[in-house]
Amino acid sequence: MAGTSDFLDPQELSLLAKHQVLAKRVVEGFCSGLHRSPHKGFSVEFKQHRAYTPGDEIRRLDWKVFGKTDRFFIREYEEETNLRCNMLLDASGSMGYKGDRAISQTKLDYASRMAACLAYLILRQTDSVGLTVFDEKVRSQLPVRGGPSHVKNIIDILASTKVGGETDLGSVFHELAPKIKRRGLLVLFSDCFGDLESTLKGLAHFRHAKHDIVIFQIWDRDELDFPFQNWTRFECLEKQGLKHTVDPKHLREAYLKNLEVFRDGLTKGCHRNRISLVPMVTDQPYTDGLGAFLAARNKIRRPGRI
Questions:
Q1: What is the pLDDT of residues 3-40, one digit of tens each?
Q2: What is the DSSP-derived secondary structure letter of residue 61?
Q3: Could you give phi then psi for residue 208, rounded to 5 degrees?
Q4: Which of 83, 109, 110, 216 has fewest C-beta within 10 Å?
Q5: Distance in angstroms (rounded) separating the CA atoms of residues 80 and 85
Q6: The dihedral of CA 248, 239, 174, 185: what is its sign?
Q7: Cα(136)–Cα(91) distance, rounded to whole angstroms?
Q8: For the chain, how big is the Rg over CA atoms in Å?
Q9: In Å, what is the CA distance from 273 to each residue of 58, 90, 202, 267?
């Protein structure tokens, strides 16, 4: 079994240490100064006190504490102090591809390390995170929880995950959407290969539930520029025994054209549904793309501003 150090490299974490994971839209949960909550009033589960700052609602002052300390403190509650993040990891066969230029072993390895890092950042800021692994169906699930020790639970699932069968993104999304009761941040790690119309309908189901959705679309460089020159045997990673030996020069133009249509359709569909689509390529350190994304989002949602 792989250890924590196999997924969380201290040097990589240091590159992302200054970043916070902020919700871009209204979510069920409120981390003071970070995330906006749709709820008014309080949860019944008290979590902690924090010092009063100008702008806080007077009704949230704890007058008993004031009477004892002569200082103003605000009562915070569990439901109001936690962003809930659901991470969805695509472990279908196509995620098992690795070209010669990739840094990590496969697209799944690359996505898994990114998921572990993101979970670490979220848990470090006292928010909560869960993990669902799927291919054509849900294969494993870890409920949304908080606490520093939870990152080990997530890494155990990631370490045991192997690439599986075919992809059915739309069906899986429709299955999961009703089960995620509280709106929050939903992060998908996938190459998004599959029927585009079905995928977009599944994503729209999540958006209808008012989740804030981020897709890290994982690419191998080979899939983007199709570098093959000589006769090559292509094997399907999702259907066993399906393979063809062809001259790639005759396929390249058609492949790149279909790729452009696919990427354009996905980009427009995500824009239409207000979904953040972030391309990630496995020949580049994931810390570069993840850091740039978090920096851009934090610039939009500065602490204390909605």
A1: 676 888 888 888 887 777 866 654 554 443 344 444 43
A2: B
A3: -60, -30
A4: 109
A5: 14
A6: negative
A7: 9
A8: 22
A9: 38, 20, 11, 10
E strand segments, 56-125 = 73-77, 84-90
CA 249 from chain centre, in angstroms, equals: 36
Going from the C-alpha of 230 to that of each of 53, 179, 233, 242, the distances in angstroms are 67, 48, 10, 20
Terminal CA-CA length for the chain: 42
Q: Contact, 82 vs 73, CB < 8 A?
A: no
Over the stretch 72-85, which tens digit does the pLDDT of each residue have? 888 766 444 478 99
Closest to 77 (Cα-Cα) out of 51, 58, 50: 50
For the chain, list residues with pLDDT below 50: 1, 26, 29-44, 78-81, 302-306
Q: Is the dihedral of CA 74, 79, 80, 83 positive or negative?
A: positive
Amino acid at 92: S
Q: Write the single-letter amino acid at 189.
A: F
Alpha carbons 254 and 196: distance in angstroms, whole number? 18
Nearest 5°: the CA angle 136, 166, 113 is 80
User: Against a cut of 0.90, is the pTM above it?
Assistant: no
Output DSSP code: residue 281.
E
The pair of three-digit structure tokens given for residue 82, joined into one six-digit string: 């936690």
Residue with tokens 């699930």: 141
DSSP tag of 284: S
